[in-house]
Amino acid sequence: MDHRLDFASSPVSGSALKHLAAAGRTVAESTVPAATLELAALRISQINGCGFCVDMHTKNALQAGEDQQRLHLVAVWREATVFTDAERAALALAEQGTRIADAAGGVPDEVWADAAKHYDETQLGALVTAIAVLNAFNRLNVMTQRPAGDYQPGQFG
């Protein structure tokens, strides 16, 4: 697969990419556990079929000490016993926020309420921002056919 466009080198998309990356760094500085953010990022990327992001978030999570079994089970998190209730709430919010076009009303109240039991308002804001930013990155990579497999943890700083 050939990468259609290096959007980082274009003046307009490159500038926008820097802003998206800055939003991602802001979320990473929140009090939402880094493992939760990586699990959500991985699930979002699986749903969107973004191979580059699946590769990146799997490798980042492993480097941060995440357990391989948990990473293997993210796609089937509902049936897995290895996730906390808070992680499950974040994964449900990530899925519903990613599949927003499929759900005629957006994120269901019960999914939001469950997330609100585990995360305060600031953390919910961070999760919602993370979900939106990851979906944007996924779409950029999928549209431009960015290949997966050669990501190195930390390559983006």
Automatic annotation (TrEMBL):
Keyword field contains rRNA-binding: no
Annotated signal peptide: none
Keyword Oxidoreductase: yes
GO MF annotation terms: peroxiredoxin activity
SUPFAM superfamilies: AhpD-like
UniProt keyword list: Oxidoreductase, Peroxidase
Domain Carboxymuconolactone decarboxylase-like stretches: 23-95
Pfam family, one: CMD
Stored NCBIfam families: ahpD_dom (TIGR00778)
Name of this protein: Alkylhydroperoxidase
Organism of provenance: Streptomyces silvensis
